Amino acid sequence: MTRLLVTGAGGMLGRDLLAVLADRPDLTVTAATRAELDITDADAVHAAVAGHDTVVNAAAWTDVDGAETHEDAATAVNGTAVAHLARACATHHARLVQVSTDYVLPGDATTPYPEDAPTAPVNAYGRGKLAGERAVTDLLPDAGYVVRTAWLYGAHGPNFVATMLRLAGQRDHLDVVDDQHGQPTWSRTLAERLVALADAAVAGRAAPGVYHGTCAGETTWYGLAREVFELAGLDPQRVRPTTSDRFPRPALRPAYSVLGHDRWAAAGLPPLPHWRSTLAAAFASAPPWKVA
């Protein structure tokens, strides 16, 4: 029986991973929340990984703007701690599935980034996550899997979808940027794909390396906000387009975060579904953000 460790098990993605894994009696799953496992503690990581065949790391520093002023702290979690996990996996002959981000890319493309596109982060958060990616590929060349995701939303944590619906109850109109392009991705769908990738790795069907775990299609934050309003039964005309310079943030955001998904086919897995159908499925599941 495969023994799987999920780190960051109390977060948005971690909780969805546990929900997906709950239906797998063929797996022995260990769930480690941040309180139970500090991944920046190398000794604790080494002890936690022992006895497991696969580790899925859903633990991360996710405050993009906060990373600008606390880069060392962010990189300690997103980079150095991932190296701890990779070394422990190498020692204990385990596979590592590491969740990364589109922010390792420069964001200046006009067509979807392939998995082997050159990296060039535009902010501190991206630099820290890239350090984590390199730790996985350098220390686990035969057993390390990096899955980049983007624009993640879900039922168990703060996210853009929940924010739009909260603001809809407070304001007559919302101004939302229309010059950043990406792929909204439901954390439950990503969790399902991470588990499928782990299965394919165990079966020897999935080569190690970088995969892109975002939904198909593309939109802007403005386009996503309008779709959220539609699904919630609200008037999408209340959402108005604007530009990023109207909302300056500490961390620069990539203008284009659309990712290609070619590597899934080689692992015998389809790309993630289109972002619109996935968002509709998320609303149909009646998570806490749904507006009656």
UniProtKB/TrEMBL annotation:
GO terms for cellular component: cytosol. The lineage of its organism: Bacteria, Bacillati, Actinomycetota, Actinomycetes, Micromonosporales. SUPFAM superfamilies: NAD(P)-binding Rossmann-fold domains (SSF51735). The keyword NADP applies. Pathway: Carbohydrate biosynthesis; dTDP-L-rhamnose biosynthesis. Belongs to the dTDP-4-dehydrorhamnose reductase family. This is dTDP-4-dehydrorhamnose reductase. PANTHER family: DTDP-4-DEHYDRORHAMNOSE REDUCTASE, METHIONINE ADENOSYLTRANSFERASE 2 SUBUNIT BETA. Residues 3-284 form the RmlD-like substrate binding domain. The keyword Cell division does not apply. Coiled coil: none annotated. Its EC number is 1.1.1.133. CDD domains: dTDP_HR_like_SDR_e. Keywords: NADP, Oxidoreductase.
